[in-house]
Amino acid sequence: MTSLDGFSKVQLEDGVLRVTIATAENGTSLDGEGLVQGARALEAVGDRIGSVLLVGEGPNFCAGGNVRAFASAPVRSECVAEVAGVFHDFVRALDAVTVPVIAGVHGWAAGAGMSLVCLTDVAIGGPGTKLRPAYPSIGYTPDGGMSWTLPRIVGDARAREILITDTVLSGDEAVRLGILSRLVGDDVVQDEALRLARTLAAGPTSSYSGIKTLVRDSRSRTLAEQLDAEAESIAAAADSPVGREGVDAFIEKRRADFASVK
């Protein structure tokens, strides 16, 4: 896996853009440089990627913001606003991605870490994975979109309870609620996330993009409007290189080679 020019926290290999969002330094808190590099890379690489993989380096996926830095700042509001601005630039870039976004969630995903988990398409954890909003514990309110994504995953009432009571969610509970996709062994969380990211990167990218667009736009549509959008999308897919390869492979009883038609 090789780093992109000038980017130490972002690597691209086999169509997978790997972004390190936290390191062991400062207790696996959110890594500002990783977020800046990640946002820039997402804008720069464009069609060169087939999936995005979010990882943390150290004992946790991401333990949240650097609270010690908040405490030592001359003007705390300015410090937190700056951190939120950098974080939200990355969130916007991630939300705009049309390829699958995967996270390997080992250890804690707290605060900003949990916000990132809620943004992914597939989040893989382990029996030892734990999630926690963490914001109320320091008297703060959510950032990173958690107040928007979490209600859409678990419902408004459950989201309010989780956020207000600062609930610690086990891996099993997070899967049951739909925040994590599935659990694997703690020692293979990142390996499995990378395997999936590589598999999806070699898959029907335009199909994934269409799925993500349909799901995203369904938030503001009626069922009748969504049916029209689905009909238009599937018809376009049928005559696309990817759609042709998929159907032809099915008829010819062979494995589709989507990478050859991207």
TrEMBL record:
UniProt xrefs under Gene3D superfamilies: 2-enoyl-CoA Hydratase, Chain A, domain 1, Lyase 2-enoyl-coa Hydratase, Chain A, domain 2
Protein name from the UniProt record: Enoyl-CoA hydratase
Database matches in CDD domains: crotonase-like (cd06558)
Biological source species: Rhodococcus wratislaviensis
GO molecular function annotations of the record: catalytic activity
Transmembrane segments: none
Pfam families noted in UniProt: ECH_1 (PF00378)
Family: Belongs to the enoyl-CoA hydratase/isomerase family.
